[in-house]
Amino acid sequence: MNRELAKSFNTEKDIYQEAEERLVFWEQQAASLDWFKKWDTVLEWNPPYAKWFNGGKINASYNCLDRHLKGTRKDKVALIFEGEPGDSITYTYSELHNEVCKFANVLKDLGVKKGEVVTIYMPMIPEAIIAMLACARIGAPHSVVFGGFSSMALADRIRDAGSKILITADGAHRRGKIIPLKNNADLAVQDTGLVEKTVVVKRTGTEVAMIEGRDYWYHDLMKKVPTDCPAEEMDAEDILFILYTSGTTGKPKGVVHTTGGYLTGVSTTHKYIFDLQEEDIYWCTADIGWITGHSYLVYGPLANGATVLVYEGTPDYPEKDRYWEIVEKYKVTIFYTAPTAIRMFMKWGTTYLEQRDLSSLRLLGTVGEPINPEAWQWYFKHVGKERCPIVDTWWQTETGMIMVTPLPGISELKPGSCTLPFPGTKVEILNRAGDPVQEGEVGYVAITEPWPAMLRNVYGDDKRYKDTYWSQWDGKYYYAGDSAKKDKDGHFWIIGRVDDVINVSGHRIGTAEIESALVEHPAVAEAACIGKTHQLKGQAITAFVTLREGILKSEELIIELKNHIAAKIGAIAKPDELYLTDELPKTRSGKIIRRLLKDIAEGRAIGDTTTLADSSALEALQGLAKN
Ligand code: PRX
User: How many whole angstroms from 367 Cα to the centroid of ligand 1?
Assistant: First the structure.
């Protein structure tokens, strides 16, 4: 559908065919970036290790800023910031360049060296982006930790990265309240004993404790430094950033992305998929704490010289029309958000949209989870007014860039399908043996050829890199952890995760992470978590917990355990439902059968129980979940 409608949007003709010669295609794309030195080879592939544009010298911050200063983009707006309380500020490319250079000098003065990981724990404010680009400028990999994570989650990530510098803010605005980011940061700093210096942005004006010689105000430091800071010449394969994501064990993985290939991947996909034009006002609603914030709020769009809108708050504050107010105010043309947000807007009804002028919009996007056709149609009709194509983009923290997506003006759009692999990439749906599945058959998403923005490793854990992503098909293909099927046109329909990862509102949370947080509570003997279908969030967390001998079940304990998880990980990991039970369904060898727990939570017929050691556990649980 909508093939005609979308046609005017993209002038590129047969990009799929052009990109058949993959390496030639990617080399051409890389050439549109600014390199200090050209690469020796496009790809060196020693499975599962890739080197893209090896021998090349490049800087991501230079490509996002300096190269735009040579022409008319110098005075073009790079960032439009809208704060939750309604304050706003814009930065031209030249102004942003100044700020980034200054902060890069601040980091150098604080002793940050090339290769040292800097942790960023910040709200969605321009200084967060300035900090990322300043790190990139001096060659210090950043590790951005989502501001909604708890102090303990932050501490884990600081420890794993061995970070000595932390950049944070006094607080963050959230639905009219203030989140005490600096307090959380202080707890993490104490806990790890690693951090030597923190830089604090004054955002909310909240009273915070500043420790002499350790904590510095951003605005004080920025007064003392020059605006000139040459960008470090980085090897294409030097680390640009680490981003932690949940996996199937209790410990989050630091996904490693490098510089040249990543930048090539994100700038190319951003340009083609969002059909970027010079005058666009581009808004991606993702937080910088997630990969979408890295690739399509910062590096992709800024490398392309786009005007990027950054919004600090939530869609419902002060009113449920806040997003549409922003679209109207800044005449946003491209809008990229998550299905969970769309389902929420659907629930709120169309009144909020109708009272705002959305005529500036011309292209819509979604990411993070499968979009149900009903939500797609609603988005198309009520937000895009049946004029705007929707790009449903499938990708992951690990892929760094969008991998499966329609191209506006070229692809046939199908509600619920992310359609085809991006030109120059090879994504397949395979069975366990590694053979492509037939039309309509469910299989596993695999990436069968290396791609430029692919992860290079798991930080400090090579074994985990190999085991998690490359062991499924003997090191030949990348295993994404998703199931999917293809329709008669070869279009992809993603079903969801097949590992023990729950996708809550488009955010990945490992069941093992929640379970290990639970068993750290003194009352808990054992815990198992599953994702239960949820109308708005896609999936919601349901936890089943057995208590230690002598501990009594109570409603208070349930609340305490839920809060315990929020404190350990963050509010996004708090289970919607938590059941205290005497036993969990297990196999004779003692393995918890999560599949049965899922059946119970969903209220559906219980599947195969032949492997169950003791069926009485199941009966008791069914009774619990019904109440
Ligand atoms: O299950 C897929 C789902 O999100 C997972 C990746 O999560 P994360 O690394 O946090 O990155 C999210 C933003 C890129 C995938 O394994 N997912 C992402 N996009 C889609 C999707 N599922 C279906 N359709 C999508 N468009």
Answer: 6
Three-state SS annotation for 248-290: CCCCCEEEEEECHHHHHHHHHHHHHHCCCCCCCEEEECCCCCC
Total Cβ atoms within 10 A of residue 137: 28
Per-residue pLDDT band for 5 (boundaries 50, 70, 90) equals very low
Minimum-distance ligand 1 atom for the alpha carbon of 286: 13
The answer to whether residue 387 sits within a structural domain is: no
Residue 402 lies in a domain: no
Find the Cα–Cα–Cα–Cα dihedral 616, 622, 623, 624, rounded to 10°: 110
259 CA distance to ligand 1 centroid (A)?
Answer: 22
What atom in ligand 1 is closest to the CA of residue 494?
A: 23
Angle at 425 between CA 423 and CA 428, to 5 degrees: 115
Query: Tokens standing for 509?
Result: 């949370």
Q: Tell me which residues have their CB closer than 6 angstroms to ligand 1.
A: 245, 291-292, 367-370, 392-397, 418, 480-482, 494, 496-497, 503, 508
Domain boundary among 369, 398, 424: 369
- Which of 12-16, 408-412, 589-593 is predicted with the least confidence, judged by mean pLDDT? 12-16
Question: How far is the centre of ligand 1, averaged over its atoms, from the C-alpha of 418 (Å)?
Answer: 11
Please give the number of the atom of ligand 1 that sits closest to the Cα of 393: 26
Nearest-angstrom CA–CA distance, 440 and 475: 26
Count of C-beta atoms within a 10 Å radius of residue 476: 12
Name the residue of 146, 243, 343, 395 whose CB sits within 8 Å of the most ligand 1 atoms, as the mutation to test its pocket: 395
244: β partners: 254
- Please tell me the distance between residue 222's alpha carbon and the centre of ligand 1 in angstroms: 38
Among protein residues, the one with the nearest Cα to ligand 1's atom 21 is 369
End-of-domain residue from the set 369, 388, 422: 369
In ligand 1, the atom with minimum distance to the C-alpha of 366 is: 26
Alpha-carbon distance of 60 to 56, in angstroms, equals 13
CB 417 within 8 A of CB 493: yes
Whether 375 maps to a domain, the answer reads: no
Q: Which of 479, 482, 493, 502 to mutate to test the pocket of ligand 1 (most atoms within 8 A of CB)?
A: 482
Q: Which residue matches tokens 């149900």?
A: 372
Task: Tell me whether residue 436 is in a domain.
Answer: no
Nearest CA to ligand 1 atom 11: 396
pLDDT at 627: 58
State the DSSP code for 394: B
Number of structural domains the chain divides into: 2
Q: Tell me how far the alpha carbon of residue 138 lies from the centroid of ligand 1, in angstroms.
A: 31
Please give the DSSP secondary-structure letter assigned to residue 369: S
**532: containing domain:** 502-626
CATH number of the structural domain spanning residue 308:
3.40.50.12780
Residue 524: give its domain's CATH number. Answer: 3.30.300.30
Token pair 């940050």 in the structure block, residue: 112
Give, using CA atoms, the residue closest to atom 14 of ligand 1.
396
Ramachandran sector of residue 536 (left: φ over 0; alpha: ψ -120 to 50; beta: rest): alpha
> In which band, very low, low, confident or very high, does the pLDDT at 10 lie, cut at 50, 70 and 90?
low
Whole-prediction pTM value? 0.93
Query: pLDDT tens digit string along 86-138?
Result: 999 999 999 999 999 999 999 999 999 999 999 999 999 999 999 999 999 99
